[in-house]
Amino acid sequence: MSISSPQGGGSKSQPGAVRVTAGGPPKPPGNKPPTRPTGGGGGGGSNRRRPPVVVVKPQRNWTVVWVASLVGVIALGIVGYAVYNSHENGLSWEQRADKISGVVYYRKSKPAILTTAYRNHVEGAVKYETTPPAYGNHNPDWQRCMGDVYDAAIPNENAVHALEHGAVWITYDPTKINATQVAQMAKTYVNGNDFTLMSPYPGQPTAISLQGWGLQLQLTSPTDTRIAQFLQDVRQNATLEAGTPCSSGTFVTGTGSTPHNIDTQPSAAPSAPASTPAS
Q1: What are the start-end ranges of the H helices in 144-278?
Q2: Quick check: pTM over 0.85?
Q3: Which residue range is the domain that position 217 belongs to?
Q4: Is residue 127 part of a domain?
Q5: Cα separations in angstroms, 225 against 55, 217, 222
């Protein structure tokens, strides 16, 4: 219901009249509820804009990145080397030698050279299948091979017997390398190293050649890293008479092309019958 002050029977409200309506207390005339300002454009609110959001991109610490990358590379290298080393250690000396680039592996291509047919002791000159020889029948007396460096050619027949004991014979053509290189090779690979010997070999196919029993590596440079690898893998390993020394017994030290023979054998190592391999 509504209460109004009647005047003249009209229904028009007078100024200042208080109008009461059902459902709540009287509201003062002319008052409007406050409006909340709104942001942005349109809608009649405040036109203030929010400040732009600035995203600051974090700077990358390149030192940390570089160090972390380097550590990762080193770790991978260590792991890779360990795997490689483990694999290499699992190989036999023959497998390692066969992997040397350029090595001629007669033991595999001509296995008969490991039999007694190619290991007889003979007097006089022998015609060999390779130059320099790397296997074959040979003189009963071996060329001393306890780090000996010969300044002249030595007999093939005595040198091949040293190979049978497990020595590595290094030969060089003096027309293809100079005296300084020869001296450096002797110092690096031969002097003081048992089961090695070195001598000139004029006319060989390359400047340098390495022989073990049934293996040969021919090279052009005295600084080739394969020289050390061949010595490491072949020296004493390629022996057909394990335990036979280079430093004692019926060895010879003479040079020249004619085989040297010693008539007497020491009592500890008597001559073997012709039908059996001689030591």
Answers
A1: 156-164, 179-185, 226-234
A2: no
A3: 104-252
A4: yes
A5: 59, 12, 9
CA 129, 213, 233, 177 dihedral sign is: negative
Query: Are 244 and 140 spatial neighbours (Cβ–Cβ below 8 Å)?
Result: no
In a domain, 115, yes or no: yes
Question: Which two structure tokens, joined as six digits, stand for 66?
Answer: 């570089």
Distance between CA 139 and CA 123 in Å, rounded?
Answer: 6
* C-alpha of 239 from chain center: 28
| Predicted confidence band of residue 267 (pLDDT cuts 50, 70, 90) | very low
Domain count, the chain: 1
Q: How far is CA 68 from CA 57, 60, 79, in A?
A: 22, 13, 17
Residue 3 in this model has a pLDDT that exceeds 90: no
- Summarised one tens digit per residue, pLDDT across range 7-64 is 545 545 555 555 555 555 555 555 565 555 555 555 555 566 777 776 666 677 788 8
**CA-to-CA distance for 159 and 135, rounded, in angstroms?**
10
> Do residues 192 and 76 make contact, with C-beta atoms less than 8 angstroms apart?
no
Best CA proximity match to 229, nearest among 98, 52, 44:
98
Residue 93 included in any domain: no
What sign does the CA torsion over 216, 219, 222, 224 have? negative
Distance CA 36, CA 206 (A): 102
What is the DSSP secondary-structure string of 115-132?
Answer: SGGG--B-SS----SSSS
pLDDT the model gives residue 30: 57
Q: Is 157 part of a structural domain of the chain?
A: yes
| Rounded Cα gap, residues 224 and 57, in angstroms | 55
Per-residue pLDDT for 183 more than 70? yes
User: pLDDT (tens digit, 9 = 90+) per residue, 157-167?
Assistant: 999 999 999 99
